[in-house]
């Protein structure tokens, strides 16, 4: 069965593929896609104001011990998130400096455990399967960040790679339950950082990409891979160092 997060990513990819396929046809007559040069297309690009990302990856809170893996064995999410960056200023021959906000969601399902003498005791084997109560943990991270997108290679040299650095504040809201009981809820604060490499897809069909800009205001679309981390451990140790991949658009 396809998880909702993966289904969402596949759907977005399909929408983008369809748009790239039909855009040249929709604009062939008035846009002149068959005769314009790449420089003509670049000169007629609309201004860039925002970048949007859909990301998907694993996430396992680093609790500093084995408690998480005992209660939620083998569960690593996934974490699905959306990010929107507002472009503040373009630095010549470097890239775009902006402010971003992201929101995500992950849920973990495990087994009900007890403590004995300060030690966590969790049922195993058939005892775990027959337990009437299940433990669940939901995480809702919200991050605000300064974002620097270094796109000089793509803009100045037509090399379709963009490198991005992110730094800001991470707030992870949590909700923990056992059966129908709420064990705890609240939030943890910490630092959020990220390093991303993206491959812009314009080179696959420059005319289709510029037609998307004309029709929908989408300047660039890209696939990305990002390493990121969080130190949101102020209330509960919920931070992690992990990765995400996904689809993005600049508009």
List the helices and strands and how they pair.
Elements: H1 4-31, H2 38-43, E1 50-57, H3 67-71, E2 79-91, E3 95-111, E4 114-116, E5 119-121, H4 126-130, E6 134-150, H5 152-157, E7 161-178, E8 181-200, H6 206-216, E9 220-230, E10 241-250
Antiparallel strand pairs: 1-2, 1-10, 2-3, 3-6, 4-5, 6-7, 7-8, 8-9, 9-10
Search tags:
251 residues, alpha+beta, Porin, 48% strand
Using the coordinates above, name the CATH class. Answer: Mainly Beta
Q: Strand content of the residues, in percent?
A: over 45%
Weakly predicted, low-confidence segments: 4-38
CATH architecture: Beta Barrel
- The N- and C-terminal alpha carbons lie at a distance of 34 Å
Q: Give the CATH topology.
A: Porin
Q: Specify the biggest β-sheet.
A: 8 strands, antiparallel, barrel
Order of strands across the biggest sheet? 1-2-3-6-7-8-9-10
Please, how many helices?
A: 6
The secondary structure category is alpha+beta
Gross morphology is elongated
| Mean pLDDT metric | 82
**DSSP strand tally:** 10
Please give the domain count: 1
Radius of gyration (CA) equals: 22 Å
Q: State the helicity in percent bands.
A: 10-25%
Structure explained in plain terms:
Helices cover 24% and strands 48% of the residues. It is an alpha+beta fold and 251 residues long. It has a single domain, classed as Porin (Beta Barrel), CATH 2.40.160. The strands form two sheets. An eight-stranded antiparallel barrel has the order 1-2-3-6-7-8-9-10. Strands 4-5 form a two-stranded antiparallel sheet.
């Amino acid at each position: 069965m396809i998880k909702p997060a993966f289904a969402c990513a596949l759907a977005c990819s399909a929408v983008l593929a369809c748009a790239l396929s039909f855009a040249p046809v929709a604009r062939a007559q008035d846009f002149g896609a068959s005769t314009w040069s790449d420089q003509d297309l670049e000169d007629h690009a609309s201004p860039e104001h925002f970048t949007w990302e859909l990301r998907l990856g694993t996430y396992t809170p680093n609790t500093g011990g084995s408690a998480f893996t005992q209660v939620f064995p083998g569960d690593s999410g996934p974490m699905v998130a959306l990010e929107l960056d507002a472009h503040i200023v373009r630095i010549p021959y470097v890239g775009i400096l902006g402010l971003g906000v992201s929101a995500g969601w992950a849920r973990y399902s495990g087994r009900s455990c007890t403590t004995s003498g300060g030690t966590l005791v969790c049922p195993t084997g058939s005892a775990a399967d027959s337990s009437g109560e299940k433990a669940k943990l939901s995480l809702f991270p919200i991050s605000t960040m300064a974002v620097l997108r270094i796109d000089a290679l793509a803009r100045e040299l037509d090399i379709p790679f963009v490198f991005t650095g992110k730094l800001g504040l991470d707030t992870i809201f949590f909700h923990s339950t056992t059966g129908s009981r709420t064990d705890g809820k609240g939030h943890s604060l910490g630092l959020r950082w990220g390093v991303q490499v993206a491959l812009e897809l314009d080179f696959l069909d420059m005319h289709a990409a510029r037609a998307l800009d004309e029709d929908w205001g989408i300047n660039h679309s890209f696939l990305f891979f990002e390493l990121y981390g969080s130190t949101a451990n102020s209330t509960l140790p919920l931070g992690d160092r992990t990765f995400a991949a996904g689809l993005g658009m600049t508009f």
